[in-house]
Queue: 2 jobs
Job 1
Amino acid sequence: MGIAEIVERCERLHEDIDFTAAREWKAAEPGRRVIGYLPVYVPEEIIHAAGMLPLGITGGGDQMEVIHGDAYYQSYICRIPRSTIELGITGRLDFVDGMIFPSICDVIRNLSGMWKLMFPDKYVRYLDVPQNYRDDIGGEFYRNEMRELLAGLEALSGRRVSDDDINASIRVYNRNRELVRTLYALRSDQPWQVPTTELYLLSRAGLVLPVEEHNQLLEAYLEAVQSEQRPRRDNCRIVVNGSFCEQPPLNLIKSIEMAGCYVVDDDYVQVNRWLKREVPSDGDPFEALASAFLHHSADTAAKYAETEEQVGRQLLESVERNRAEGVIFAAPSFCDPALLWRPMLADKLSRKGIPHISFKYSENAGQMAPIREQAGTFADSLKLWS
Amino acid sequence: MAEDKLKEAVKEPSMILQKELIAGNYEALTSAPETGRKVCSTFVPGNLNELIRCFDMINNLPEINAINNGMRKKTGAMIQDAEKAGHSEDVCTYVKSDIGMMAQGNIAPNGKPMPRPDMLMLSYTGCYTFMKWFELLRHEYKCPTAMLQVPYQGDGRITPEMIRYVVKQLKEEVIPTMERVSGVKFDIDRLREMLKLSARAEDDLVWVLESAKHRPSPIDAYFGAVYYMGPIFTAFRGTREAVDYYVMLRGEIEERIARGQGPITPEGEQKEQKYRLVVEGPPNWTSFRQFWKMFYDEGAVVVASTYSKVGGLYDRGFRHDPEHPLESLAEYCLSCYTNNNMPQRVDLIEQYMHEYEADGFLTNSIKSCNSFAAGELLMMREIEKRTGKPGAFIETDLVDPRYFSAANVKNRLESYFQMIEQKRKGEKSAA
Ligand code: SF4
Ligand code: SF4
């Protein structure tokens, strides 16, 4: 497959708010089940090991007109829960057998209970994750959460899942994470070769495809992109932060690049890079997944930073490692976690003299001109000062 | 009528006692630099007041400071200061008024500066904003922080694993930090003694809240209840003073019941009770009296509210238990109202509608507070469906005066009361 073909496939997946690929996967064999989940992270390995397809749901994007969803939310609540409800009410998730709402914020937390009220026949699980990072405290709690999740899925499928099954799934996801890391490293190294829109679309495809297929897609892209030389622009290098839940429209992602910024790291859909290292797959899988969560996972606003030193540490490391010249904070409007975190991160950056700007968006934002202008001015100032 | 034209508020002896208690706590806080007592900042829902007191620390509650500043109309400027300093207009205004208060010298209601906290007790029950709020304060104060994660009741129940997790954190993280900061050794018997006192006050608080089942109701279970819950939800649970306060309050209400009297509003006794309401959501603080007046002027009395349960669902049976001190603290943290899932919240309100024979259900949706607000529209529809009683929805904010539109709220309430009236007439003519 060539780049164009791969990207086109991903684009189609991204635009498809009926989740046709997941529907087809389910229909291909009787007894298959699909489990939807919301941002920011769930241990997909557990779902995969249960023989089910984990389906990442990040709202309706800018493709979907929200008609019913607004009747469920006040104007001052972000957009992703209302478009997710719209997906539910319009039957677009009727083939989904269960939904997992992970601990990220009060909005998605409450949405878990709303789902229970609205879709009483579906399996609904609120997944708490640890905010205590000791193996014997937070680790124990999280191992238990995962076991309960698995027990729920086993009850749904009537099929027992062994540790070996989960270990096998960990291996497939390890490969996925490795490929995604390679893709990110390649973009950071040669951002003109891997435009962020392409990287983003590839990431998004991972939310809706079986992981094995996603792995093939990533492999194919990585191969194809090496054999083609793409024009190099005089862009500055920036990191995007704050977009870990409700996703910006693709046009916004494009706009940042068109405004003269190479994105060299970001926190867009990060379920595939949440665990930052290879997860051991030869022992107790719950231990391995819990330990990876506690000690080697991504920082987001949804996690407690145990010490003041830890606040922004990963962001600063990313800026350094990726030789970024500045940071763009791009957060969804009304997103408490991201917007409460931003001043702390901004302060850490300022202390190191790292320039930053910030703006808010919503998943259906149509007006790109102001953002392009802001990013463009930022890029110009970075070039001027570097 | 403009708020500042409201008359001097009518106060009962229990209110005067409460005022003294709170003033005493502020005095203890602001004199901490001289007395050498340690200050522990923490949040209201699921707070560990007894534990904090076990280490002789003084409890400082930033939410209460925000409410205090809100009622004294100081938060508007504080919030704007915080926004100027880079905090988003979208986030919880309690946080911003706290940050703005710091920027303005952190002056307590007694006019003296608040001390820097010696520790932050980040027990987050029912709200994720708490976590970032105290990270922001830690960023400022660089002081020790103890984190207590309280799992959410996602499936509508408290499991033994949840209790174990909270207890383990108490034993291995929270208590050692408190010992280190305060220099006081943990004494579980002292905790037991306090929990005994907590349970006694809790019994009386429940009696007080349930007195609203009477007709006429002797209390307003929303506007009045924010005073009644004061001592127990803040720095006094587990103290003799709190026990005395609730005995006194109960006595006052018993008298009102005997005389067939209604609640005491800032303008005296509420004589007329045409509408009995159940209310969801916190009140607005910057126009608190004006807001309340819109109810009692129309003859509306609140007979039950969810906000008066943010610090514990005592009326559903929970009591602090000296026999199982740490487990009972854990259960307390886990069971606060906003740590209940949405089906539990709907069930609770439905029960209130029946138990308190309410005519309607009103939501005061707070712009700041996703923890309460996300899902409230669905809740309202569910309650309407289940009870057949009309619901109404108003939108305000806690302490940001920009989001309290008196005219809109008043219009909305007036048409709502008319709706209840019409519904009643319809029911009568159908009967
Ligand atoms: S966008 Fe932010 S506030 Fe909204 S659901 Fe996601 S994390 Fe929560
Ligand atoms: S979001 Fe709500 S519960 Fe949380 S701190 Fe703000 S007002 Fe309190």
Job 2
Amino acid sequence: MADNRSYANMKKLRRMRSAATAVLVFALLMTSGCASSALANKPPVSAGVDFFAMNTYMTITCYGPDAKAAADAGEAAVYELEKTESRMISTSEISRINANSGKGPVTVSQETFDIISDAVQYAEKTQGAFDITIAPVMDIWGFGDGNYKVPTDVQIQAALPLVNWKEIKLDAANLTVELPVAGMQLDLGGIGKGFASDKVQKIIKGYNVTAALINLGGNVAVFGPKTDGSLWKIGIADPNAPDPNAADAFLGVLTGTDISVITSGGYERFFVQGGKTYIHIMDPATGKPAESDLLSVSIVTPNGMQGDCLSTALFVMGKDKAMTYWRDHKDFSCILVTTSGEVFASQDLKDKFALVDTKTAYTLQFFS
Amino acid sequence: MTTNDPSPIRTVTPRRADADKLAYRAHYRFCRWDAVVVLFVLLLAGGLVFGLYLSAKNSLSASSHKEAVLTVDGTEVWRVSLSGLTAAKEYTVTGNGEKLVVQAESGKARVLSSTCRDQICVRSGWISGIGQTAVCLPYRVVLRIDAVGNGAAAPSDTNTSYDVISK
């Protein structure tokens, strides 16, 4: 009886021990599972390139097994684009169009044709606030070659008739572009980097890239999650900082991914003459630097080219027209900084954008 | 044997009879599967410790050391560790009548002066965060803060409040 009972107990015991072992092994498996997944979470291979192109400094940082090849391909694409689209390179397609202004149509590549026709569409949408025929005006102010000077009224009046996007003749069937008035010039400066950024994204996504940060001279695009799984934090330049170009001069931070953030402001390029500041953003209507009540405009959009065009256009429009433009379209988000220190962000950025705590000189309002 | 104890486990006590002990040993001797389990557990534990060691090593190398790197038109011309610098170090880039002076101190670096026309590199001031840059466009000079061991500065390793600035 006693033996039987202890034998039965032992059987029970053995079952219990098996169960305990199973639990222990299970627990250990779970722990090591966590540990190995923590290991797997370590940053994927990253690679970056930095280079000078399109008259600015660019960086492309990619994450993924083929990160290096991806970043290199992105850099190569920017150089290719610059070769065909820069009016500062005499052999480019844009230079050929410009050299033939008033002479006749010029056959171009599909890509160049597409960029120009998109630019014309944005000119139409913004009623000329964005205009790729602004080049003759840029040049008389010296923003073309960096020899800044204030032109005479006579010079401005002579250049203004050459600024008119409506004159651009596009022939989609024959892929030709024509500037019918001699002296008309195209400059893709306000759209080229946005287009380049979109193109770089497309190219690097073909290289198994899980995430990337593309910074074409302050023209930012990000996609994918960061290495720690979080969203990207994009600083918005502080146009009132002692030096807005300082390494960490930003007034607020936008959180997100799969977006382009493009900012235009007078602080980017300007010169001072006779105590007056002349900024590089020209108003196509006056032929003079835009007299905007805005210090900067940031556009947040998945479409980098749209962001590039609209950041310039909304700056030229000024606060009220810019807000109206957003209300009428709403296919992008924007952050407007006024000369009096107000920051107006479109309603759809409410949970994504905030001012930096220390930037108490600014007030943030969301508009709808 | 205690009979009024409801817990079978408690019945296995040193006070058991010798017969019980013998029966216990007979049924619970160390068998093949026990060896497998022990081996398995040891392997898992070893793997776990090794994994933790690796990740600790990684995070250490990412945060412990900063370097200032100077490139001219993409070519590295100067590199200096910013950890434990007791005196400022300087480097001068010259050529074609141009002159750009870079200065490094403990934990930070800057473009001290430049003969370039736009002075953006100088006005960028001190930089200290990993991945931060001071750039001179006219001279194609880039001063950058790198983490040692990381070829490309990974933005998410910067530990700053931002990854990039739109301007």
